[in-house]
Amino acid sequence: MLKKRWVAFLVAFIAMVFGGLCLNYTPPGKVEHHQEWAAEHGLPPPNGTIPFIGGASLLIAGVLFGRASRRA
After folding, report:
1. CA distance 25 to 45
2. What is the rounded CA–CA span in Å between residue 64 and residue 59?
3. In this model, does residue 61 exceed pLDDT 90?
4. Cα separation of 43 and 41, whole Å?
5. Long-range contacts from 9-17, C-beta under 8 angstroms, 24+ separation
6. What is the pLDDT of residues 4-58, one digit of tens each?
7. Cβ distance 26 to 51 under 8 Å?
8. How many CB atoms lie within 10 A of CB 2?
C-alpha cells in the first residue's frame, strides 16, 4: 500500500512539472519570442492547445496528490 502511495506522489509530481512547463511555454506577452524559439528548435509553436493540456495536467496532478494524501 505504501508503494502505491509513493507511485501516486511521483506521478502527481511529474504531472505538476509538465503542466507548469506547458503553462510557462505560452505566457502572455512573450508569444512572439516563443514562436521564434520553437521554429528554430523544430517544436510546435505556442497555441491554445498547449495551455489547455497544462491546465488539465495540473488538475490531474492535484487529484492524484489529494487522493494519495488522503490514504496516508
Report:
1. 9
2. 9
3. yes
4. 6
5. 9/64, 9/65, 9/68, 11/61, 11/64, 12/61, 12/62, 12/64, 12/65, 12/68, 13/61, 15/57, 15/58, 15/60, 15/61, 15/64, 16/57, 16/58, 16/61, 16/65
6. 888 888 999 999 999 998 888 766 777 778 788 888 999 888 777 888 898 999 9
7. yes
8. 8
